[in-house]
Every structure is written in C-alpha cells, then in structure tokens.
Amino acid sequence: MNDHSPARAHGTDPYLKRLRRRKLLVGVGISLIAIIGIIALVVGVGSIARTNKDPRIPKRTVMEQWNGKDYQAVSASCDTSLEASPLDPFYLTFKGLASFYLGMAESDGEKRIALMDQAIFALRKALLDAKAPLRPEATYILGKAYFHKGLDFYDESITTLLESIKLKYSAADTWEYLALASQGIGEYKQSAGYFDQAMAAKPDSPELMIAAASVASQTGDSARAETLALKALSATTDEYLAERSNFVLGDIYRSSGRLTEALARYDAIKEKNPESADAWYYEGLVFQSAGDPIKARAAWRKAVSIDPMHTGARQKLSERS
C-alpha cells in the first residue's frame, strides 16, 4: 500500500510523523547548542572581567576611611592593595599612618611595638618615592614612631623630626618629642632648648613644666628648675605630677644644703604615698648629710621593707658607717 496516498491524512501519515519528529529533534539540538554557546560566552567574559579587575581598593575609599578615622579599615584596605602594588607610595603612606595610630591606641606593649615596626617599615618605603603623598606629615609621624620604639631609636627620632621641620611641618608636640628624646640620650642642653619651644606652644602644661624642671636640674640650672617645679606644683591637681614636682624640689634642696626644705618635700610625698620607697631613700640621704646616721639607716630600712630590691637603699645599708 502506498504510504503517500492522498487518502491518508497528514496527521496519520507515518512518514510525515517521522519527518516531523526528526525536524523537532534537530531543532532542539540546535537550540541546546546555541544556549550552551551563550552560557560559555557569558562565563568566559565574566572570567576575563574578574581576571582583569583591579584588586586595589580605590584611593577615594581609603581617603573616606581615613577621614572617618577608621584606621583598621585603612590598614586592611592598604594591605589588600599592596598585595597587587607593593611599592605604591599612596598605600604605603596610609598603611604607615594607620599603623602608627593603631599602635598609639594599643595597651599591650608587644602589640604596640609590632605596630610601630609596621609604621616605620611602610613609611620608610613610601618616602623613598618622590611622589609619596603627605611627605611632611609622614616624616613627622615616622619620627614619633621611632621615639615609641624606645631609647635605642631616639637618635633616629630626633633626625627625622628635624627633617619634618625642614619640610615646614611641626605639630604642637614636635618640640616635646625632641626634648624628651634629647634628654633620653643625655643631650640636656639641647633638651632644655626644645622644652622652651614646647612650653611656648603649650604654656599652661604642668607636664611640660616638670619635665623641663628635671632637665634644668640636670644641666645645673637649679634656679630655673626650682621655678618650673614650683609652677608645675601649683598648676596641677594630678597626684603623680605633684609627686614628681616634689622629688625635683627635694633633689634641688638636698643638693644645695637646704635640708629642712628637702625633708618637707619628702614628707609631702609620703603623706600622699606612704609606700614610696624612693621618698624614704632620699630622706635617708638628707639625714646622712645632716650627720644623723641612725635616722638615715632607719629610713633606708623602711625603703627596703617597701621595696626589697631597692638598689640605692640596699647599697646604703651595706656600707659601714
């Protein structure tokens, strides 16, 4: 029988059914191939886009974090950016600045030193590039970071802070840092000059007055030391600063033979802090100068009872009278 007979309806013709199925399968296959191709194209373009995307955090974002004083975010953004551009002076500068301020807020000594190390490392690298931003400010912060590393870095602190001044940048505490660093390395005359400049910037600071008084005493300028210590004592309500002032005054009076005045200063310290081993020790020195070894040794024994490792008092008690 002829399958193509006109007598057969198209819907029941077996050949036409097979033909329609074949066309449908071919069409579906072509559509699937096209869809797969499109997906592959999209994935490929996305992969290329991800590969080519700049991994650095935009500098505008870093500046927004900096202006908001979010130093943790600044540090993290700079770390991410420096992985891609390890010598970029912008990210190095802000990494150093953020590390310094995070270190200043850190109460743990070891963590603070580690952050100061990060600050110094980043800022030194940044400042090697002539395009480094905020060069004067970065130099100033670098000088302060050296100071907070301790006595062994005071020379670098002084040199770097003086460089920041040459770059026309100085803050209210620049001269104070210079004074303290100079005092720490025994440059007392330089320190006294820096303290004068620090007090000119902050004339009402009892902290600066007593620090300057201590340096003046070390340079032999007892009159200036006494004036500054008395001024600091009258200007502060802080017991620690008052105690420091009395120690400076006691030392001035004891060294100049004003023994009664010296004893009064040590008594004032003990009144507020009876457990001050140093006050008892220096009182013993006053009694020794006054020719009263019994009272002197009694004072030194008291110092040792408070602080068994007090070197000065133990040394005095070991001496034969």
Task: Describe the fold and architecture.
By secondary structure, the chain is an all-alpha fold. Among the domains are: 78 residues, no CATH class; 48 residues, no CATH class. Helix content is 76%, strand content 0%. The longest helix has 39 residues. It is elongated, with a radius of gyration of 38 Å. The N terminus is likely disordered.
Q: What distance separates the N and C termini?
A: 145 Å
The total of beta strands comes to 0
Share in β-strands: under 5%
Average pLDDT reading: 89
Low-confidence parts lasting 5 or more residues at pLDDT below 50? 1-8, 45-51
Largest sheet: none
User: Over all CA atoms, what is the radius of gyration?
Assistant: 38 Å
Our count of helices gives 16
Instruction: Please estimate the helix content.
Output: over 70%
What is the H/E order? HHHHHHHHHHHHHHHH
Computed structural class? mainly alpha
The global form is elongated
Q: What topology emerges from the helices and strands here?
A:
Layout: H1 14-52, H2 59-67, H3 71-84, H4 89-104, H5 109-127, H6 135-149, H7 154-166, H8 174-184, H9 188-201, H10 206-218, H11 222-235, H12 239-255, H13 259-272, H14 277-289, H15 293-306, H16 311-318
Helix pairs in contact: 2-3, 3-4, 4-5, 4-6, 5-6, 6-7, 7-8, 8-9, 9-10, 10-11, 10-12, 11-12, 12-13, 12-14, 13-14, 14-15, 15-16
